[in-house]
Design a protein that fits this description.
alpha/beta
């Protein structure tokens, strides 16, 4: 499976409170969550994000609370992949559980710039910056995680009999 999109770049320690501010946690409506995604760190995020875009970030992305609302808001906004130097552990697991692909690759996270065109092959772990021509090697997703992502999340994977 491949994804391809424009890079939206963020820094270190982007916490769940800026991914989806607590004032919007009184809803579980995915579209409503996406409408407020990243607004406390990037007011124009919802205007500029397009289906398939790729979020690129620094260290400790998704730190803070354990709310699943954060990866749900990102996925529903149209982001197809997050590449970061590192992720908070619970954000990592929540993302996989809801079918949002995330990958740690320090070199790619450091060198990909805002608006670069980026592609990733989940089976090989190769990330390509199509703007610069540079390639990066990350760990490919194991088959069972690819199954979860392709099914749209863990619950869907179980329901479909993939697990």
């Amino acid at each position: 499976m491949n994804v391809n999109g424009k890079a939206l770049k963020y820094g270190d320690n982007v916490d769940t409170d800026v991914i989806i501010p607590a004032r919007y946690l009184n809803t579980s409506d995915k579209k409503e969550l996406a409408a407020h995604c990243m607004e406390d760190i990037d007011k124009d995020f919802v205007k500029k994000v397009k289906q398939g875009d790729i979020m690129v970030a620094g260290k400790n992305f998704g730190c803070g609370s354990s709310r699943e609302h954060a990866p749900i808001a990102i996925k529903e906004s149209g982001i197809s992949l997050i590449i970061a130097q590192s992720f908070a552990r619970i954000f990592y697991r929540n993302s996989i559980n809801i079918g949002l692909p995330i990958v740690e690759c320090e070199a790619a996270a450091n060198e990909i710039n805002e608006s670069d065109s980026v592609e990733m092959n989940f089976e090989t772990g190769v990330i390509k910056n199509l703007t610069t021509g540079k390639e990066y090697q990350s760990e490919p997703f194991p088959a069972f995680i690819q199954s979860i992502i392709e099914a749209g999340g863990l619950v869907s994977a179980v329901k479909s009999g993939k697990f």
